[in-house]
């Protein structure tokens, strides 16, 4: 019986039903007609009418059916369906008393995105482009290094405010070699110019700073405790994949403590202790937040396995917290 069922019911006594009395009467008649002399059963069936067989069968069927109906009404073989979960939580109480897990409503996820999205920014990396040119008509002038006069867009990524006074976290590779950084913030018509406070190539982390044109505080995200996040928990990624601003993807935390190696312009770059998720992460998501169901940052989206589907990686919030002190105090570049 279900523990939530407080109502007690007396079991139905079968011998008190009129159906049983009728059944016994018909069976007595059947036995008296199918036996002769000294109680020896008659091997022939000619002495018993078809109607007697039929009556016995019908009475038996009515008895079993009546007991089954009473058992259903009395809830003899299962939990009380009235004991279902009415608390509005994330579980469903079944008739057998088993509690089944269920997903939270889509509204919860939408609320996380609505609350977190204003703190997520788009970062554009502008750099002066250089190129080589040979001497006129292929003469002995040799090659010459030339550069554009104005910085040109070299790449873009994502970042997020972790402080209301304008401090932004992102990946180091998003801002590497930049001559100018432009940050697009929701609510402002023009991008804001950012300066690099500190950066670490090894950790692939960077802190930027922008000033508020109107003196208003910026929305900020809280750095959560990744140790409280378990494999299988829902996580939400927000970023600007391929320039598509404020794209949200949803998945689960697939694994912790991953090690990967990525080849970049400086050679193989080894990452350790990464989070793995199947939330879609693409080019442009780098530097964006990976959020738990409470809207807290548990990781920073960093890399994706291009040869697979649903294998993305993020720097855990524990590493970010540990590095923040150095990034804030040791200058633009930290090894």
UniProtKB/TrEMBL annotation:
<dbReference type="InterPro" id="IPR051201">
    <property type="entry name" value="Chloro_Bact_Ser_Proteases"/>
</dbReference>
<keyword id="KW-1133">Transmembrane helix</keyword>
<dbReference type="GO" id="GO:0004252">
    <property type="term" value="F:serine-type endopeptidase activity"/>
</dbReference>
<dbReference type="Pfam" id="PF13365">
    <property type="entry name" value="Trypsin_2"/>
</dbReference>
<keyword id="KW-0812">Transmembrane</keyword>
<dbReference type="InterPro" id="IPR001940">
    <property type="entry name" value="Peptidase_S1C"/>
</dbReference>
<feature type="transmembrane region" description="Helical">
    <location>
        <begin position="50"/>
        <end position="71"/>
    </location>
</feature>
<keyword id="KW-0720">Serine protease</keyword>
<dbReference type="InterPro" id="IPR009003">
    <property type="entry name" value="Peptidase_S1_PA"/>
</dbReference>
<keyword id="KW-0378">Hydrolase</keyword>
<keyword id="KW-0472">Membrane</keyword>
<protein>
    <submittedName>
        <fullName>Trypsin-like peptidase</fullName>
    </submittedName>
</protein>
<dbReference type="GO" id="GO:0006508">
    <property type="term" value="P:proteolysis"/>
</dbReference>
<keyword id="KW-0645">Protease</keyword>
């Amino acid at each position: 019986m279900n523990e939530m069922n407080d109502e007690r019911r007396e079991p139905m006594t079968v011998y008190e039903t009129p159906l049983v009395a009728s059944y016994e009467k018909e069976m007595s008649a059947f036995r008296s007609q199918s036996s002769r002399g000294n109680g020896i059963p008659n091997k022939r069936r000619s002495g018993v009418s078809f109607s007697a067989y039929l009556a016995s069968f019908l009475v038996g069927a009515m008895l079993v059916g009546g007991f089954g109906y009473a058992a259903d009404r009395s809830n003899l073989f299962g939990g009380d369906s009235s004991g279902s979960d009415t608390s509005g939580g994330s579980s469903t109480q079944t008739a057998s008393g088993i509690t089944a897990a269920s997903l939270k409503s889509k509204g919860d996820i939408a609320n996380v995105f609505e609350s977190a999205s204003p703190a997520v920014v788009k970062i554009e990396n502008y750099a002066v482009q250089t190129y080589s040119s040979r001497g006129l008509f292929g003469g002995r002038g040799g090659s010459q290094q030339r550069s554009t006069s104005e910085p040109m867009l070299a790449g873009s990524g994502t970042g997020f405010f972790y402080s209301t006074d304008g401090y932004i976290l992102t990946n180091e590779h998003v801002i590497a070699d930049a001559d100018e950084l432009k940050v697009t913030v929701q609510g402002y018509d023009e991008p804001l110019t950012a300066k690099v406070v500190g950066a670490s190539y090894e950790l692939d982390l960077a802190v930027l700073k922008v000033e508020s044109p109107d003196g208003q505080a910026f929305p900020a995200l809280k750095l959560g405790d990744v140790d409280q996040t378990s494999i299988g928990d829902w996580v939400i990624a927000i970023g600007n994949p391929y320039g598509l601003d404020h794209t949200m993807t949803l998945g689960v935390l697939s694994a912790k403590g991953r090690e990967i190696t990525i080849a970049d312009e400086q050679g193989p770059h080894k990452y350790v202790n990464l989070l793995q998720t199947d939330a879609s992460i693409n080019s442009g998501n780098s530097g964006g937040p990976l959020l738990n169901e409470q809207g807290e940052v548990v990781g920073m989206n960093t890399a994706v396995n291009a040869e697979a589907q649903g294998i993305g990686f993020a720097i855990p919030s524990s590493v970010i917290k540990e590095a923040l002190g150095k990034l804030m105090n040791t200058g633009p570049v930290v090894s």
